[in-house]
Design a protein that fits this description.
- The complex is a heterodimer of chains A (260) and B (356).
- Chain A is an alpha/beta fold and 260 residues long.
- Chain A contains 10 helices and 10 strands.
- In chain A, 34% of the residues lie in helices and 23% in strands.
- In chain A, strands 6-7-8-3-9-10 form a 6-stranded mixed sheet. Chain A has a 4-stranded antiparallel sheet with strand order 2-1-4-5, with helices on one face.
- In chain A, helix 4 packs across helix 5 and helix 4 runs parallel beside helix 6.
- Helix content of chain B is 71%, strand content 1%.
- Chain B is built from 15 helices and 2 strands.
- The radius of gyration of chain B is 21 Å and the shape is globular.
- The chains are: A alpha/beta (260), B mainly alpha (356).
- Chains A and B meet through helix 3 and helix 4 of A and helix 1, helix 9, helix 10 and helix 11 of B.
């Protein structure tokens, strides 16, 4: 725990993420009800809950894919409730998608290059990058970080599922991320790939905090220091992984049955 | 594709698939040589009526190929922008109707281009709020509105008669209206536009546009302002369409509402689709087919004892056949034929042709 304390002390004072009374309605259906959530800079948190608990909706509200029906969202102290997604991304927010959302007709390198370009200037540039372009180099080192260098010139459509999931993570790490939302990054991965994922998440720079939605407790509880449980669009319990695992109510609802 | 090609240009790529590169170069060089020496082999009728016209229509269709093929936005207003630029050159410059402003060409052309960019941005700003069929509908509505406006408005557009007596400028001591110079002027502009599009689609702007075509929501989550990017694409396409429109006016010496009619707008779509929107050259292939059909179909039909005005029937049938058998146009046919010709060898890199 020392390393966690040290990590949290090295970063600024404003909260990375602060949600106040966030509610999201889809017609009569309340996907999120009065969510209040505070995440400190550098903090790593898991959001758990059954299907339909509102986890992905929560992510969509935080990134601005759709705005909350009411409530406010602050990102490093700034009210971003009504910002379009790209403004939030340019401020250091990142996300990955539950179902891979990549560009299958482009190569691995082009995919990562777009991610790097998206958070830097020159998005409208009419000049092709040169051989030793800084952003191309940045894209290549991101690719190296997720072990995809040997296939960087392949089209994404040709990649195996696990490789696409790794590419998703590379896209989320482009530029200077300050906070990342991982939406079930381990879904469908083999045990080896899961171990690699845990390695990648644990070796992220200390100042980068994240929220991870993950059904696999072995992954989720190993890479976070705090857990938020959701149920029917509401926050139902918060605590450390140990507390959550030991909680009889939680065990009854989620950790019983499937997970041993 | 884009970066891989621009970065690994030359050495490594040439080493892995020399045949592919040679094929491309050979075809391109051959076409280049043919179009440059065309004045030697073709009559001046063929030169202006078939080839010159193809270059101008192809340039306008190229602007649609760019929007549709790389941006996923089918705009029927590209002929409208071309016609708007043509009208501006006529109105701002010298013309045969009383009331021409009489600016020299070097003032009228940049003014026409800039105003066309503004109009392109305005059309784009309306169109990007819609997708798919609704983009087609809104741009069709704009095209129809402009057509009827030019028909009714006499103060500026001289109504149904249009504007005539527009001289082709003389500069560099050359009469650009003569068959030979006008051929090379039209070829040169078409070539530069083709070059610009081919380059830009692999620059960050074009690459991001393709990303937006494939997954706009993800592009927003990577930091791109999707709508602004799309509008910028409309502006770029407007410049190309406007250049084509200005050449049309110089070539005919006149412009009338018929140039911007709804059927003319649809012809541009037909040209782009028949040629193939997966590759910038498709626009010119489609335009050449269109020009040949439109010029000779009449005689052929009359020879068979049919009404010559039914040439559109032939174009329509050709369009049907293409859409039926090769949704990615003539370019798609060519790409498939080439793939079959060298089946087995270096197939992985064949995708240069098109995404559909």
């Amino acid at each position: 725990m020392d390393s966690v304390a040290q990590r949290l002390s090295t970063v600024g004072s404003a909260n990375a993420l602060e949600l106040r009374g966030v509610t999201r309605l889809f017609g009569a259906l309340a996907a999120l009800v009065d969510i209040s959530l505070t995440v400190r800079p550098g903090e790593r948190r898991a959001v758990l809950g059954s299907n339909g608990a509102g986890k992905t909706t929560l992510f969509n509200c935080i990134t601005g894919d759709f705005p909350p029906s009411s409530g406010t969202i602050r990102f490093f102290g700034e009210d971003v409730t009504f910002f379009p997604p790209y403004e939030r991304i340019r401020r250091g927010l990142r996300r990955t998608y539950q179902i891979s959302a990549l560009f299958p007709g482009l190569t691995v390198l082009d995919n990562v290059y777009l991610a790097v370009r998206g958070v830097s200037r020159g998005r409208y540039s009419f000049i092709r990058p040169r051989r030793n372009d800084t952003l191309v180099n940045a894209a290549e080192s991101l690719i190296q970080g997720v072990h995809l260098t040997p296939i960087k010139d392949r089209f994404v459509a040709e990649l195996a599922y696990g490789q696409q999931r790794q590419l998703e993570i590379a896209l989320a790490l482009a530029g200077a991320p300050r906070f990342i939302l991982f939406d079930e990054p381990a879904a469908g991965l083999s045990p080896t790939e899961r171990a690699e994922l845990v390695d990648i998440l644990s070796s992220l720079p200390a100042h980068i905090g994240y929220i991870i939605i993950e059904h696999d407790m072995d992954v989720a509880l190993r890479v976070v220091e705090r857990v938020t449980m959701m149920h029917n669009g509401r926050i139902f319990k918060e605590g450390s992984p140990q507390e959550i695992e030991a909680d009889p109510e939680v065990q009854e609802l989620y950790l019983g049955g499937g997970h041993g | 594709m884009a970066l891989a090609e621009s970065r690994a240009s030359g050495a490594s790529r040439a080493a892995t698939q020399p045949t592919w590169l040679q094929n491309i170069n050979l075809a391109a060089v051959l076409v280049g040589v043919i179009v440059v020496i065309m004045p030697v082999i073709a009559s001046s009728f063929v030169l202006t009526q078939i080839f010159g016209w193809s270059y101008m229509l192809g340039t306008i269709a190229l602007s649609l190929t760019f929007l549709a093929g790389y941006g996923g936005m089918v705009s029927l207003a590209q002929m409208t922008i071309a016609g708007f630029a043509g009208y501006l050159v006529a109105i701002l410059g010298v013309n045969g109707v009383p009331g021409g402003i009489g600016w020299p060409w070097w003032l009228a052309v940049p003014a026409a281009l800039i105003l066309s960019m503004i109009v392109g941005a305005a059309i784009g700003a309306l169109a990007v709020r819609t997708v798919g069929i609704y983009t087609i509908m809104i741009t069709l509505a704009i095209a129809a509105a402009f057509y009827y406006f030019t028909n009714e408005n006499y103060a500026i557009f001289n109504g149904h008669t249009g504007i005539d007596g527009i001289p082709t400028p003389m500069f560099l001591g050359v009469d650009w209206h003569a068959p030979l110079p006008s051929y090379y002027l039209e070829l040169g502009v078409a070539f530069l536009c083709w070059l610009a599009v081919s380059y830009v689609v692999r620059a960050p702007f074009g690459l991001a546009l393709q990303g937006i075509r494939d997954n706009p929501r993800r592009m927003a989550a990577l930091g791109f302002n999707v709508n602004a990017h799309r509008i910028a694409a409309y502006v770029f396409a407007a410049v190309i369409a406007a250049l084509g429109g200005i050449l049309l006016v110089w070539s005919y010496g006149e412009i009338a509402p018929g140039t911007v009619s709804v059927s003319a707008a649809i012809d541009i779509l037909v040209i782009a689709v028949v040629g193939g929107i997966g590759n910038p050259i498709g626009a010119f292939i489609g335009a050449l087919i269109y020009a040949v059909l439109k010029t000779f179909a009449l005689d052929v039909l009359v020879a068979f004892g049919l009404d010559g005005n039914r040439f559109r029937l032939l174009i329509g049938l050709g369009f049907l056949a293409i859409v039926f058998f090769s949704p990615d146009g003539i370019i798609g046919l060519w790409a498939r034929w080439r793939n079959r010709a060298r089946s087995g060898s270096s197939r992985a890199q064949s995708s240069g042709g098109g995404h559909g």
